[in-house]
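Good morning,

Attaching, inline, the backbone tokens for the sequence recovery test we're adding to the shared suite. The designed sequence is right after.
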């Protein structure tokens, strides 16, 4: 049997490939994360101020330079052994997972507060990335 490729068959195949790529991108972890709003993140971060500061350690460690920093590495802060030894680097994806459920990432961490809303997390991370350098 001789099957000939027609323009309609080629378009159909190309459409199937493009649809498959779009589905893969949407379903990939990290790629579907919401875009953060720095100003809104700054307002939301005020709720973190009970334990954290950008420039000084409090109940929790300071957040200056948090994006890209190794977890458990701020001088002068007494981290849990599990967090110090976790090997986590605070990428945007790891911060998102952390804020969604710190106890799920590091069960013996001191952090007990979570941020269930994905947009709120994205906004806080955008603020930390922009303002806590």
């Amino acid at each position: 049997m001789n099957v000939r490729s027609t323009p309609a068959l080629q378009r159909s195949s190309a459409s199937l490939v493009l649809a498959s790529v779009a589905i893969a991108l949407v379903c990939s972890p990290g790629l579907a994360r919401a875009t953060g709003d720095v100003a809104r993140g700054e307002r939301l971060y005020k709720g973190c101020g009970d334990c954290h500061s950008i420039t000084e350690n409090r109940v929790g460690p300071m957040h200056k330079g948090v994006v890209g920093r190794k977890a458990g590495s701020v001088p002068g802060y007494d981290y849990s052994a599990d967090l110090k030894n976790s090997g986590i680097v605070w990428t945007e994806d790891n911060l998102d997972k952390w804020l969604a459920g710190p106890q799920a990432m590091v069960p013996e961490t001191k952090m007990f507060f979570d941020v269930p809303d994905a947009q709120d997390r994205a906004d806080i991370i955008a603020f930390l990335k922009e303002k806590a350098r």
